[in-house]
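Intended use. Records like the one below are meant for learning the mapping from a protein sequence to its folded structure. Do not use them to infer anything beyond what is encoded.
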Amino acid sequence: MINLWRMKQFYDTYKNHPNLPALLREINWTNNLTILSRAKSIEEKEFYLQLCGKERYSSRELERQIDSGVFERIMIGNQKLPAMMREFGADVSNSFKDSYFFEFLNLPELHNE
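Structure written out for the chain above:
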C-alpha cells in the first residue's frame, strides 16, 4: 500500500516536468524515493537527479550529499560569480570549482579557517 502511495506521489511530482523522465530512469528506485522525499524544490530534485545519474551514487552517498547541502552550496557559489559567467549557464559556472567535504573532522558548526 505504501509503494502505491509513493508511486502516485512520484507521478504527481514529476508529471508537469517533461525533461525529467530520462533522468528518473537512470537511477534506482531507492535513490528516486530519497530525492523525492528530501529535496524541497523541483530545481533541487533535478539537481540531485543529474548528480546521482552522473556520479552513480549509492543510496548512502546520495544521503550524505543531501545532508551536506551540496545543492545549497553550489547555488550560493553561483550567485557570487560575475554576471558574464552566469550568462554562459550552469555547466561553465561549476567547472571552475571543486567541492570538499570535511564532516569527518567533526569541526564545530561555526568553524572558520
